[in-house]
Write a structure and sequence with these properties.
five-stranded parallel β-sheet; Rossmann fold; 25 helices; single chain; six-stranded parallel β-sheet; 3 domains
Length: 692
């Protein structure tokens, strides 16, 4: 039977909408002479079905808390999401979560793809382009972030949904390619999602069997479906990536699944619709070229002489689908929240604070303070005590460790574990999956809860890419790293971090804080909690450090300036400056007392955070001179890590006492003595400088 005129017209406008996504991608990549046109072309039908028929999303209110999340994990296909944001009319959001009337992605932005200051950078960037839920590009990061979003969704529902008030039931969708499936982080995240039975999570695997070097047979031969079934996922197949009905049926099956995350494997051809399908490399990683574009547009029945062309009716078609559906769902949610606010005012207030990165009144009440103690405590122990005090006041502080909670001291006491049977739990068990842990933390952070992840400092290498992306995204993820130095002792060089502090400090926008005693540790947690844009790495020790007498030395709140004068020479005129961090701050203080007793004018500067110090000095340039006067060139820094970077503070004439090799396996006292970490070494270095 021949299709009706109405169904033919519908099919026509749907195909126009799909081909508009494809041609915008081709034209934008060609204009930029850079980018990946093939993946957006191949994934366009799937994206159309998801956005137009399934996604609960209001383009006019893209920060609606219960919106479905869409993550383009295959971030190189960025023109796919830019085309969708443009065609569906997603509005731009200001920093204060205010929705404007301007488009998130204008046609001019698409024409300026990959150009300076355009809203269409080479890979999708959170905060930079409204409607982009997380920054993607490094393969596997997006799908791992999506697990964090799904976790946050389950937690929000468990805490805030009440009978008759289902405020949170959003789903998280992520598009991934062969590259994402090969990255190890994806396997870690998938294993975690399967264990947690995150039925609000759906990954779409665009199985086009192409990577940059060629066919995936070069490097990949496993059965991906079997792998995901083993993880505990529900796996569906769509044999033809152009079959809209099959794609819609798969998504509807996902929506009915309540006991596992879902993987939809779609067989597609990269650059679908191109007459030259063999040229997979150019379709994947290079512009197609004017001639190829003309031929492809001819296949689509597209005007070959028009660029950045949107046919009549396409914008309206999107508005009649996702636009109308999203407007209705959003209005219903707003009305429901209004009633909820009247019945549950305290919980509603929490939700408003969560969405605006605010902390509740009295969030820092009950934080411990510590009297002077020459034996002191390990900063990991104090960190756990401070974290637990904050957790009592901030219910949405959620986190855990990579199977190391007894060592990192990051368990929230009295709280349940987050499990498939207890989604309201606040203690995460990330398993021995450091890379996925850090990415999951970021996914939770962009959903606006306050997450943390913890492991040993030496394993920050596993987390580094995710930490870097947290800094790029400007989200306040908290990463707790313990066992911060040679203090690990007998565990030896494989577990003794050397270059890690310098490496983390090199990441722009990351606050790296290594407190020097118990009270600085409390301030470190306070500083991390007050961030709304900067991620924080809290660096804590395994071994005890003296708790300084704050009636004799300066207040620990100097930590919020990054560095401060802890102890000073008479009249504030030192001849030598000793700079310490972490457990080595105690060595600097001990050396100071002995030098002072000998009549040598010394100053101790506690520098728990070079990044906070530099940030503070940008606003208060005079402060640098107050703490590190340029006239005092005799300076000694002490830190049980790579000396690299300390020349910025000790100068060419100073001495950086640090590590210039890997460590060794031996008891702590023997290791410290062998590598020269003692107050005697500090005194000797100071005196040598003064003789010059």
């Amino acid at each position: 039977m021949a299709p009706s005129t109405a169904s033919t017209a519908q099919q026509s406008i749907e195909q126009l909408a799909i081909n508009t996504i494809r041609t915008l991608a081709m034209d934008a990549v060609q204009a930029a002479n850079s980018g990946h046109p093939g993946s957006p072309m191949g994934m366009a039908p799937n994206a159309y079905v998801l956005w137009q028929r399934i996604l609960r999303y209001d383009p006019a209110h893209p920060v609606w808390p219960n919106r479905d999340r869409f993550v383009l994990s295959a971030g190189h296909a960025s023109m796919l999401i830019y085309s969708l944001l443009h065609l569906t009319g997603v509005k731009r959001v200001e920093e204060e979560m205010t929705v404007t009337g301007d488009p998130a992605v204008s046609m001019d932005d698409i024409k300026r793809f990959r150009q300076l200051h355009s809203k269409t950078p080479g890979h999708p960037e959170y905060r930079f382009t409204s409607g982009v839920e997380t920054t993607t590009g490094p393969l596997g990061q997006g799908v791992a972030n999506s697990v964090g979003m799904a976790i946050a969704g389950k937690w929000l529902a468990a805490r805030y949904n009440k009978p008759g008030y289902e405020l949170f039931n959003f789903n998280v969708y992520s598009f991934a390619g062969d590259g994402c499936m090969q990255e190890g982080i994806s396997s870690e995240a998938a294993s975690m999602a399967g264990h947690l039975k995150l039925a609000n999570l759906c990954w779409m695997y665009d199985s086009n069997q192409i990577t940059i070097e060629g066919h995936t047979h070069l490097s990949m031969s496993e059965d991906v479906a079997a792998r995901f079934k083993a993880y505990g996922w529900h796996v569906l197949h769509v044999e033809d990536g152009n079959d809209l009905a099959a794609m819609e049926a798969a998504y509807k099956t996902f929506l009915k699944t309540d006991d596992a995350p879902t993987m939809i494997i779609v067989n597609s051809h990269i650059g679908w619709g191109s007459p030259n399908k063999q040229d997979t490399h150019s379709a994947h990683g290079e512009p197609l070229g004017d001639k190829e574009i003309e031929l492809t547009k001819a296949v689509y029945g597209w005007p070959t002489d028009k660029k950045f062309y949107v046919p009549d009716g396409v914008y309206e078609h999107w508005q009649q689908g996702i636009g109308a559906r999203g407007e209705k769902l959003h209005a219903e949610w707003v009305a429901l929240f209004g009633k909820y606010k009247a019945e549950y005012p305290e919980l509603a207030k929490e939700l408003e604070e969560i969405q605006t990165w605010q902390l509740p009144a009295g969030w820092d009440q009950g934080l411990p303070t510590y009297p002077a103690d020459p034996k002191g405590k390990a900063s990991r122990d104090v960190g756990g005590e401070a974290q637990n005090a904050i957790a009592k006041n901030v219910p949405w502080l959620i986190g855990g460790s990579a199977d190391l909670a007894p060592s990192t001291k990051t368990l929230i006491k009295g709280a349940e574990s987050f499990q498939a049977t207890s989604y309201g739990g606040r203690n995460m068990h990330y398993g021995i999956r450091e890379h996925a842990m850090a990415a999951v933390v970021n996914g939770m952070a962009v959903t606006r809860v306050r997450p943390y992840g913890a492991t040993f400092l030496v394993f920050s290498d596993y987390c580094r890419n995710s930490i870097r992306l947290a800094a790029i995204m400007e989200v306040p993820s908290i990463f707790v790293f313990t066992h911060d130095s040679l203090g690990v002792g007998e565990d030896g060089p494989t577990h003794q971090p050397i270059e890690h502090l310098a490496s983390l400090r090199a990441i722009p926008g990351l606050l790296v804080i290594r407190p020097g005693d118990a009270n600085e540790t409390v301030e470190a947690w306070k500083h991390a909690m007050q961030q709304t844009k900067e991620p924080t790495a809290l660096i804590f020790s395994r071994q005890a450090m003296p708790t300084l007498d704050r009636t004799k030395y300066a207040s620990a709140d100097g930590l919020h300036r990054g560095a401060y004068v802890l102890a000073d020479a008479p009249g504030g005129k030192p001849d030598v400056i000793l700079i310490g961090t972490g457990t080595e701050l105690g060595l600097a203080v001990e050396a100071y007392e002995k030098l002072t007793a000998e009549g040598i004018a010394a100053r101790v500067v506690s520098m728990p955070s070079t990044s906070v110090f530099e940030h503070y000095c940008k606003k208060h340039p005079e402060y640098r001179e107050q703490v590190l006067p340029s006239s005092v060139r005799a300076r000694v820094s002490i830190e049980m890590g790579a000396a690299y970077g300390w020349e910025r503070y000790v100068g060419l004439d100073g001495t950086a006492i640090g590590m210039h090799s890997f460590g060794a396996s031996a008891p702590l006292k023997d290791v410290m003595a062998f590598f020269g970490f003692s107050s005697a070494a500090v005194i000797d270095a100071a005196k040598k400088l003064l003789k010059r």
